[in-house]
Amino acid sequence: MINIAIIDDNNILIRGLEAIFNRHKRCSIVASFPFIEQAITWNRQQKASVILINSDNCHFESLKTLQTLRRTQPDVGIIIYNIHRYYAFLLKALDIGIRGILSAKIDADELVEAIQVVNARSKIISPDIAQTIALKRIDQNEQADLYDLLSTRELEIMLFITQGISIKQIAQMLALSPKTVNTYRYRMFGKLNIRSDVELTHIAISNGLIVTKQGASGCQNSLNQKLF
């Protein structure tokens, strides 16, 4: 029996998953949680075979937590489904050892197959996501990589700036002087050939540091792979 823990805060989707797995006797949902941290705490004692995570509940900050889980509980297979994120998120997820990357286009049988594959310690990526990764890599052959251009500290400050946090507050949070924070800021401007925080935010969006959702009034900020 493949014991599955679900991380999803949408009760309708959870009920749908339960209906799917009830038709497949080899899979059983043993727990569900709205937050990744809750699932990890539970899994220290209960040990699910596979953790199934809705991508809406998994952001760059979450990948850092999952990286710790992969290191401390390597036998647990992790699948992120309903993927509609950016290239940087996908690469980081694969880099930290996420075994299943599934798009929102999969059907019930494909989901069950993916769980069986991941439970066998193999990897599976939805074809449309694999194509996105391949095409993006081709496009980037002629472009400078943002993550090579900027240091970890610069990326961290970039994230705070895109959240609208003031230089003074950033300095307090990072135990730096405002002058030092501004030095990093203008250094980023020079490296990226830009002149304003607005342009910095546009670059963050295009590289997946900020995930925008259709119909949302704001944006959701995310850490990028270099912060790990």
Structure commentary:
The chain is an alpha/beta fold and 228 residues long. 52% of the residues lie in helices and 15% in strands. The chain has eleven helices and eight strands. It has helices at 11-22, 36-46, 60-72, 87-95, 108-119, 127-140, 146-149, 152-162, 167-174, 178-192, 197-206; strands spanning 2-7, 27-33, 50-54, 77-83, 100-103, 124-125, 210-211, 220-221. The strands form two sheets. The chain has a six-stranded parallel sheet with strand order 2-1-3-4-5-6, sandwiched between helices. A two-stranded antiparallel sheet has the order 7-8. α4 links the parallel β4 and β5 (100-103). α8 crosses α11 and α9 (167-174) crosses α10. The two termini are 34 Å apart. The relative contact order is 0.12. Mean pLDDT is 83; it is low at 213-228.
